[in-house]
Amino acid sequence: MDSASQPAAAAGTVKLGDLTAHRMGFGAMRLCGPSVWGPPKDRAAAHAVLRRAVELGIDFIDTADSYGPEVDETLIAEALHPYPDGLVIGTKGGLLRPSPPRWDTDGRPEHLRRALEGSLKRLKLDRVDLYQLHAPDFKVPLADSVGALADAQRAGKIRHIGVSNVSVKELEQARRIAPIVSVQNRYNLEDRGSEDVLGACERLGIAFLPWFPLGAGAALRSSKVKRIAARVGASPAQVLLAWLLAKSPAMLPIPGTASLAHLDENARAATLKLPADDLAALR
């Protein structure tokens, strides 16, 4: 595959159950309005970003019913349905958005069943490739939440199940209920609190999707990252994404943006191989 026209393919691939995806994905959350609330100001521009992502070799798109809420999945279907062969769409359920600042957990089986049906309708799918529990709900046994997804999988509505925002113990609990193919936790150069979860994913052959992959901005502004970026002829964001890719073969970064320019920049990070001394400096 041509790394010039489809740079995302240069990152290699990762398995999601029986599916394969390039290790540079796209997080569609930022296509929504401010605070991930409401529709984008320019719907056509959001569609253009999604279509460009596929052109760049990105074949994994991450979304959730809570993005918008219920906006992001609709945008994806508007832009890309009927979906190109090989495109894997992962969505999530288990968070409610009663107002822009709130992200409330709801892991009740009855809620997850309704959430899944809504996602299928918005995405125009009979079966979703990857459905992740967005976060454990302390008010509901994790086995009940994951069990509801396992029931939907047996019914043919979910191909593969993933979990998000979990500990190693919660991952182990989920795996006792159903096969788990992915974990989506916060992870970046500044925040490695899920290092143990990443290690478990490596051992188990589970894909690890780091959300907030560029962090809160401190790493982008750090003199160390800027020096490396200047030395290798890349942007600080590309250095951080290349570091993630080099960190683990289980890693599937999903940087998000509403900008075509930033989308291209992020995808081209897949072609960047950082020298060993620079990787060591970022450890």
Key terms:
11 strands, globular, TIM Barrel, two-stranded antiparallel sheet, 283 residues
Mean pLDDT across every amino acid position: 97
Shape: globular
CATH superfamily: NADP-dependent oxidoreductase domain
Intertermini distance: 31 Å
Assigned CATH architecture: Alpha-Beta Barrel
Model regions low in confidence, pLDDT < 50 over at least 5 residues: none
Largest sheet: 7 strands, parallel
**Number of H/I helices:** 11
CATH class: Alpha Beta
Return the CATH topology.
Answer: TIM Barrel
Order of helices and strands: EEEHEHEEEHEHEHEHEHHHHH
The portion of residues assigned to helices is 25-40%
Structural class: alpha/beta
The portion of residues forming beta strands comes to 15-25%
Number of strands: 11
Q: Using only CA atoms, what is the Rg?
A: 18 Å
Classify the oligomer. single chain
Strand order of the largest sheet: 3-4-5-8-9-10-11
